[in-house]
C-alpha cells in the first residue's frame, strides 16, 4: 500500500505542505481568515466585483424566477433561459459569434482541449501554461510538445517539423508570472503552419483591453486571429463558471464533444443572471480599471526601490521572487503577523527554485491599503538574503 503519511511528511520537510484557510464573510480586501481580520493581497477578484451590491441584487432577484440548482446537465433539462442569455452576452462581449457556458475554468480547458485534439494530433503548449491546460492536453491523448515560455522561434521550428492536425494553446495572462502572451506573433505562426490557436484568457478578461474585453482585444485581435477563446468568470468578473467563445460551428462541435460540458450538472441559472449584470458593470467602468493600473504602477515602483525582485508584469499579478520555499513561507508569515494575507507560491505550482509571494491587486484596494502593504514589505525586507541570493 502506498505510504501516504510518508509522502505528507516529505512535503512538510521540503516546505511544500499546503493548508486551507477558513474564510468567514464575503470576499473583499479585508477578510476574516481563521477568525483573524487580514487585509488580503492574494485574491483574483481583480475588479472587486465578487461582493458588488449590484451583482448581489441581480442574484437575489433571479432566485424566485430561476430557483437554485441546475438540476441536470445542459443536454437533458438543465439548459435554462438564463444560461442561454449569458452565452449570448458573452459572445457579444468578446466579439465572437457564439459562446458556451462551463461550470469551471478547469472544466472548460479540459473539455475544450480534449475535444479539439486526440490520438494522432499534436498539441503545442507553453511551458508555463496553467495546470488545467496541461491536464486537458493529457486527457486528449494527443502528442504534446512544450515550448519554452514565450519562445516563438522554438514553437515555429516545432510546428514546421510536424504534420497533421496541430493545436497551439496558451494562457493570455500567465497566472503565476503575470506577463501577457505574445498573441499577435502566436497568431502569425499558427496561420503560417495551419495550426488552431486556443487562448485561455482567465486573468485578462475584465482587466485588460477596451471595456475589459481581455488580452486578445487589447492586442487588437479578432475571432479570425484567435478562433478559440476561453475565459473564467470567477476572477475579475466576480461570479463563477467559465466559457469558450468562437464560431457557431465551433460551439456546436463542443456541445457534441466536450465531455466536461456534456456530463456535468448545469450551474445554478441565477449565477448566470448575476454574471450578465457583472459584465454590464465591467463594460462601463473604465475608472475601476484605471484605479487598478495606478495601484500596479505604484506597487512596482516602490517595491522595486526596496530591492524586491519583481517579474516583468504590468497586470494585477505582481510576484515577488524569493527562490527558497522556506524563505517564501517566512516572508508570508511575517506579513501575516502585520495583518496582511499574501500567500507563498511553491512548486509544483511554479518551477523548483522559483518560490514567490504572488501579490495580487484589486480595484477594491484603496491607495491607503497599498501604502500599508508597502510599509510592511519595507519592514520585512531584511528577512530575504542579500544580493548573492535572488529575492
Please describe what this structure looks like.
With 391 residues, the chain is of the alpha/beta class. The protein has 2 domains: 20-47 and 286-383, Aspartate Aminotransferase, domain 1; 53-284, Type I PLP-dependent aspartate aminotransferase-like (Major domain) (Aspartate Aminotransferase, domain 2), CATH 3.40.640.10. It is 42% helix and 17% strand. It has a 7-stranded mixed β-sheet with strand order 4-10-9-8-7-5-6, sandwiched between helices. Strands 1-2-3-13 form a 4-stranded mixed β-sheet. Helix 8 links the parallel strand 7 (166-171) and strand 8 (195-200). Helix 4 runs parallel beside helix 12 (269-284), helix 5 runs parallel beside helix 6 and helix 7 (152-160) runs parallel beside helix 8. The longest helix has 20 residues, at 286-305. The protein starts with a helix and ends in an 11-residue tail after the last helix.
CATH topology of the largest domain: Aspartate Aminotransferase, domain 2
CATH architecture of the largest domain: 3-Layer(aba) Sandwich
Strand content: 15-25%
Helix and strand succession? Answer: HEEEHHHEHEHEHEHEHEEHHHHEEHEEEH
Largest beta-sheet characterization: 7 strands, mixed
What would you call the shape? globular
Number of domains: 2
List the helices and strands and how they pair.
Layout lengths: L3 H10 L9 E2 L5 E4 L2 E5 L12 H14 L7 H5 L2 H14 L3 E5 L2 H12 L5 E5 L4 H10 L2 E5 L4 H9 L5 E6 L11 H10 L2 E6 L14 H4 L9 E5 L9 E5 L1 H10 L1 H4 L6 H16 L1 H20 L3 E2 L6 E7 L1 H13 L2 E2 L2 E2 L9 E6 L6 H14 L11
Helix pairs in contact: 2-12, 4-12, 5-6, 7-8, 13-15
Amino acid at each position: 500500500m502506498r505510504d501516504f503519511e510518508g509522502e505528507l511528511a516529505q512535503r512538510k520537510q521540503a516546505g511544500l505542505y499546503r493548508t486551507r484557510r477558513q474564510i468567514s464573510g464575503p470576499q473583499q480586501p479585508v477578510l476574516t481568515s481563521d477568525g483573524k481580520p487580514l487585509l488580503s493581497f492574494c485574491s483574483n477578484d481583480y475588479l472587486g466585483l465578487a461582493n458588488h451590491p449590484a451583482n448581489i441584487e441581480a442574484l437575489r432577484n433571479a432566485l424566485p424566477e430561476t430557483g437554485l440548482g441546475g438540476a441536470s446537465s445542459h443536454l437533458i433539462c438543465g439548459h435554462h433561459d438564463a444560461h442561454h442569455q449569458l452565452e449570448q452576452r458573452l459572445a457579444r462581449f468578446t466579439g465572437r459569434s457564439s459562446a458556451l457556458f462551463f461550470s469551471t475554468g478547469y472544466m472548460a480547458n479540459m473539455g475544450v482541449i480534449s475535444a479539439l485534439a486526440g490520438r494522432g494530433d499534436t498539441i503545442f503548449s507553453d511551458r508555463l501554461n496553467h495546470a488545467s491546460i496541461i491536464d486537458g492536453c493529457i486527457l486528449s491523448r494527443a502528442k504534446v510538445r512544450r515550448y519554452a515560455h514565450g519562445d516563438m522561434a522554438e514553437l515555429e521550428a516545432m510546428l514546421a517539423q510536424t504534420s497533421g492536425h496541430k493545436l497551439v494553446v496558451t494562457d493570455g495572462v500567465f497566472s503565476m508570472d503575470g506577463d501577457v502572451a505574445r498573441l499577435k506573433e502566436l497568431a502569425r505562426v499558427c496561420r503560417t503552419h495551419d495550426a488552431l490557436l486556443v487562448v485561455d484568457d482567465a486573468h485578462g478578461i475584465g482587466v485588460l483591453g477596451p471595456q475589459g474585453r481581455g488580452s486578445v482585444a487589447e492586442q487588437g485581435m479578432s475571432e479570425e486571429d484567435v478562433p478559440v477563446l476561453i475565459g473564467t468568470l470567477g476572477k475579475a468578473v466576480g461570479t463563477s463558471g467559465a466559457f469558450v467563445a468562437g464560431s457557431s460551428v465551433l460551439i456546436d462541435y463542443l456541445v457534441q464533444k466536450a465531455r466536461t460540458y456534456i456530463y456535468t450538472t448545469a450551474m445554478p441559472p441565477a449565477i448566470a443572471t448575476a454574471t450578465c449584470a457583472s459584465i454590464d458593470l465591467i463594460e462601463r467602468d473604465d475608472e475601476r480599471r484605471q484605479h487598478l493600473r495606478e495601484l500596479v504602477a505604484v506597487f512596482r515602483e516602490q517595491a522595486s526601490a526596496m530591492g524586491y525582485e519583481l517579474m516583468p508584469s504590468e497586470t494585477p499579478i505582481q510576484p515577488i521572487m524569493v527562490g527558497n520555499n522556506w524563505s517564501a513561507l517566512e516572508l508570508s508569515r511575517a506579513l501575516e503577523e502585520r495583518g496582511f494575507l499574501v500567500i507563498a507560491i511553491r512548486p509544483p505550482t511554479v518551477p523548483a527554485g522559483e518560490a514567490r509571494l504572488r501579490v495580487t491587486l484589486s480595484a477594491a484596494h484603496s491607495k491607503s491599503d497599498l501604502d500599508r502593504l508597502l510599509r510592511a514589505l519595507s519592514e520585512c525586507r531584511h528577512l530575504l538574503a542579500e544580493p548573492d541570493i535572488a529575492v
